[in-house]
Amino acid sequence: MDHPVAFHARLKKNRPLGPEPDLLEPPTSRPRRFLWGARLRYYLPVFTPRRVFNALAITGSYYLSRLLRRHLVWGRPLSYFVEPTNLCNLRCTECPVGLKQLRRPQGLMDASLYQNVLDQIAPTALHVLLYFQGESFIHPQIIPFIRSAVERHLLVEISTNGTRLANAEFAEQLVRTRLWRLIVSVDGASEETYQIYRQKGHFHRVLRGIRHVVEVKRRLGQAFPQVVLQFLVMRHNEHEIPAIKALGRQLGVDRVVLKSPQIYHFSDAEAILPTNPRFRRYEKVNGTYRLKGSFSGYCRKLWIGSVITQDGQVLPCCFDKDATYPLGNLNQSSLAAVWRSGKTVSFRNRVIRHREKIPMCRNCSEGLRIFF
Ligand code: SF4
């Protein structure tokens, strides 16, 4: 296997990549048929009759509500963001946590609150995104947290900056939890480019971490977690799109996903937004940036999803990074009570009637394509 520096020297010269015998070998001991069987055994217990019924009810009520233009909600969310922590070890230059702009309290989710959340969501939910703001792997109990959600047959997804995966023992424990999907943010195909956005991050350490995960998965013959390498396309790194795809192949990840960036401070938007319009979610009209597309007045996220912060606040969606629109707190009420509360109903009605008047909703990609 190449030393990472040598690998990047080859990428820069655009030379074809040679095979990585220890990483690119197919899982010879586990035939493809076995992996399909393993996938089926993994997914079947997720779709319990109660969850399927809930999924039909909540999506049905969303479409009926759109059709009748009336507030109708049957059932509970299918998917929850649960925030183990909103602390982070990096200082990314467009992130409210990295910029230290978050005004809400920062900390670690209490284990009893987490179990309480799982108890309430597991009967009806299908999917848990164990992250929101911050770096989830900072939480000292993150492995037991993942394990308890997987044991309840929830599809558990984590997005990480990947720093902690460089610890081989941690990476092995993580793969053994059999979480569903692991998204690792790598916004550069070289150390220099990576460091521009992921300040305090270490490119080669993250690559080493991804290699650990892929290697353990192959050794154990596991189909999960699916490993996704996510690349935020910005002005300074868009020239590395072909290189990041090659790097993803070389590492043996399941997918490389390109994402368009959200802008918070439009005064420096041009320095951040890529030149390729395909990867820009904004267009400039009369000198002002606005999202592409038009506001439909409806928001699917308010029916099928919800967010729970590290201190138990329930938020309408993942765009409410600083808990500006709190709907309730699970330390004081149940999730069912918050979901039906006057505050939640009134927020949904505000979005239905005047989505364009809510600042958070004006900078929201709901209904737009942001992944490529
Ligand atoms: S920001 Fe507004 S429109 Fe966007 S997902 Fe949240 S509630 Fe829906």
Describe this structure in words.
- This protein is α/β, with parallel strands linked by helices and about 375 residues long.
- Helices cover about 40% and strands about 15% of the residues.
- It is built from 15 helices and eleven strands.
- It has helices spanning about 5-10, 20-25, 30-45, 50-70, 110-120, 140-150, 170-175, 190-195, 205-220, 240-250, 270, 300-305, 335-340, 340-355, 360, and strands spanning about 80, 125-130, 155-160, 180-185, 225-230, 255-260, 280-285, 290, 305-310, 315, 330.
- Strands 6-5-4-3-2-1-9-10-11 form a nine-stranded mixed sheet. Strands 7-8 form a two-stranded antiparallel sheet.
- Helix 7 (about 170-175) crosses helix 9.
- The radius of gyration is 21 Å and the shape is globular.
- The model is unreliable at about 1-30 (pLDDT under 50).
- Bound molecules: iron/sulfur cluster (SF4).
- Iron/sulfur cluster binds near residues 299, 301, 302 and 355.
SSE class: alpha/beta
CA-based gyration radius: 21 Å
Runs in which pLDDT lies below 50 for 5 or more consecutive residues are 1-29
- Tally of extended strands? 11
How does the overall form come out from the CA principal axes? globular
In DSSP terms, counting alpha (H) and pi (I) runs of 4 or more, how many helices?
15
Q: Kindly estimate the percentage of residues that lie in beta strands according to DSSP.
A: 5-15%
Quaternary status: single chain
Top keywords for this entry?
372 residues, alpha/beta, two-stranded antiparallel sheet, 11 strands, globular, binds iron/sulfur cluster
What would you say about this model in short?
This protein has 372 residues and is an alpha/beta fold.
